[in-house]
Amino acid sequence: MTLLLLFASTWVAIHLARGLAAPIRSLAEASKEVARGNLAHRVDTIADDELALLAESFNQMTAELEENRGHIEDGATALKEKNLALEERRNYIETVLESLSTGVVSLDQNDCVTTINTAAVSILKLSEAPPAWAKLTTLLSGEDRVALDRLLRRARRAGRAAEQSQLTRGAVGGAIPVALTATALRGSTGTGRGVVLVIEDLSELLAAQRAAAWSEVARRIAHEIKNPLTPIQLSAERIARNFRVRLNGSSGTEPGADWGLRAGSPRGVADAIGSGETSGAASNGDGANGFALTEENREELTRVVEECTTSITREVAGLKALVDEFSRFARMPPPRMEPGDLNEVIRQTVQLYAERLDGVEMQLLLTDQLPLAMFDTEQLKRVFVNLTDNALEALAAKPDERGLTIKTRHDPARDLLIATVEDTGEGIPAGDFKRLFQPYFSTRGRGTGLGLAIVARIITEHGGRVYAEPNVPHGARFVIELPVSSQ
Which residue of 108, 222, 357, 401 has the smallest Cβ count within 10 Å? Predict the structure, then answer.
């Protein structure tokens, strides 16, 4: 009995041990599998007691974990796709903002700059883009700060505000006309919301409007002045011709020529004719009045008439040149675009000044093998002739360091040909740079003031840009930018 009881006890103990150890071992192995990330592993139920319930709960937990992990992975994939879409949209918006010629600045509720494009940095004359914590109003001068602060307050209150103003930019380069538009960001109310500020430089627009207005004025001036010039010139020539004929005693003069001389001549001629030194009057065959003059009066009368008729002819020629200049500005023909070499145009222009430099040292620094550009050769020659004439005139009054340099280069980043005409003259006042290319503006106080206006118009019609800047250490530099030909 004792042996039987011991055997039974041992068997029961072994059975109970197996019934407890096997499920626990299965749970331990399953835990390791789950820890390794295998959520598909399941515990085999080998009992019907509490351990079986524990195994079922474990299997249910791993099934839920696997399902949740699937949801998380799906959500992560969708989030990644959305992040990629947002990144593409952000890059697209940044590219668009950087390509705009209009300045765009976004501000938070504290007027701190969050984004600013290159055009805004250039318009506001900032050395670099401000940091995120910087307030826009602290970067501007007093007058600009007041104008923008007023505009931002109106935008936050009404949702949108716009006005036209002038930015002094600390008097750097002079004030520029701008159109300001501020729009409050959506999704917030009251004064504590962000604002998008759009700054549009109106300088080129106003310059184009002024050029169009001057074209119309030039057309009318040319029409009104040109008509009487030819009769004036013909009358002066007729006075001189008839005077010479009558003075030489010819009988083939026109009837009434002497009266025309009296009416069209200066008072000095009439005094010379009617002076007491005349020796008498005679009548010629055609009935016209003739005068016998002493040799002294004859010479004086000849000198006065020649001076007067020469002066009239010279002034009429000057007026005609002025009218022709206005006419060319008003009715400039469209350019005949052909592929050409910019260096060759400059060389042909410089040849015209081979004997006219008057001691000015001219240098050509031309980059070899420039890409071709589309332009009208004759019009582009006129551009460099006008700029060279201006430079030589600026150097005429300078006793020393009289230098003129023309350079060319290729800017592959912007696909532009760049030509500069530099002189070492007295330079241009800072306030005149914005007005240089306006019609009838001249820093010398003489001339038509249309030379640079015609230059700007030609370059603009070629799809390029021209501007002036100081030439360090002294003088002026005119920069021409032309697009490279795509052909």
Answer: 401
Residue-wise pLDDT for 65-110, tens only, equals: 888 888 898 999 999 999 999 999 888 888 888 888 888 998 888 8
Task: Return the residue matching tokens 């949702």.
Answer: 159
Buried-state track 283-304, b at ≥16 Cβ within 10 A, e below 16:
eeeeebebbebeeebeebbeeb
How far is residue 211 from each of residues 95, 176, 360, 463, measured CA to CA in Å? Answer: 33, 17, 33, 16
| 3 state SS of 176 | strand
> How many C-beta atoms surround the C-beta of residue 95 within 10 A?
10
Rounded Cα distance between 429 and 248, Å, is: 58
- pTM value is 0.46
């029409």: which residue's tokens? 223
Tokens of 278: 């005349």
Strands 361-366 and 403-411: parallel
Q: Beta-carbon neighbour count of residue 8 at 10 Å? A: 10
Q: How far apart are CA 409 and CA 418, in angstroms?
A: 5
